[in-house]
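Hi L., both proteins are below.
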Amino acid sequence: MPRGRYSLHDPHDHTPLAEEHFHCAPGPSGWRYVSQLTAPSGDHSGSVDLTLDELGRPIRLELHAASWQVRGAALDGVTWVRTDPTGTHATEGNASAHAFTGTSPAFLVATTRLLRLTPATTATRVRLVAFTDPVLAPRTVDQSWALLKREAHATDNGSLTVDEYQVTALDTGEQHTVHIAGDVVLAAPGIELEDLESPPSAFA
């Protein structure tokens, strides 16, 4: 069960946004990721709880940020309920999308589990509902993912396979690279892996 800490920053001006303390593991249903977020001030700023089924579909999502809350799942596309900080107003949403995304590294791993790309696969288009900070506002985004290469790296704990993905935002054409080993993001825009207590899990 990988356990560690990511630092999150603005990918444009590198302003620190949060630290995300996480643990994740494959399980009987698929894969689960749980994390707590801490603001630069040291205050608790949110949490992520994401469970995927064996095909990579989100069967349970719960996000908290700035007292806003989102609960969602893959249902008729994806469906979610967003609740305001007072708890008095809940808005239900639905979109013809494949999965969810957001600032947490969990969503990058989740997208790769859904797409199951190989280096021989052509770039694959995916529609996602992004929950944007700080109020978890939903926004539908279209991306293209391609697995550029898969390399084995020697480590103290044996060989580690690292996948390098190219992600393209289809509305702007902006591209960026994501490096993932198993169920841990090694590097991505706005994300740095600061600490890892145990090796990434290897998916079958």
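That was the first. Here is the second:
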Amino acid sequence: MSLKKHPNADNTYETERLILRPMSAEDRDFIFELYNRPKFIQHIGNRNVNTAEDAEKYILNRFAPQIERLGYGNYLLITKDNNEKVGAVGIFEREGLDVVDIGYSLLEEFEGKGYAFEAAQKVKSIGMDEFGLSKISAIISKDNLSSQKLIEKLGLKFMKYVTLPGETEELNYYETE
């Protein structure tokens, strides 16, 4: 099946301190590292990215098709000052949710600097202003208090608890009003 490339699929965005560009196969080593961090596995889950090759397949099979089809998806976060890859942020279609979901993750050494909020705020704006999304949701594990605070700061409100198909963990579900 051939997907028609969305005209905005190559968009790179900037915030005060970050460059956000669509995730690509060349980011495989970074995704491998990020997705295997204990905090990522604890709060987001094990994505079975066990090698750099698995990471590349994950990018090509999960991230690339959505961004090519819709124009938005998962973005790599790169600092402007040091050109360091620090994390990822995106808006995702997720099985079991009727509203697209915003998500983010950072390497622990870059947490607490405001990068996640800065990037999530930009991606929320892109989704709503450029792509006309009327609502954005977020799902967060019950013990991830810092993410819950960030999502509320973004203007999303807790609505209910959800369990995604094929999962057992009940998650907090937030949505824009």
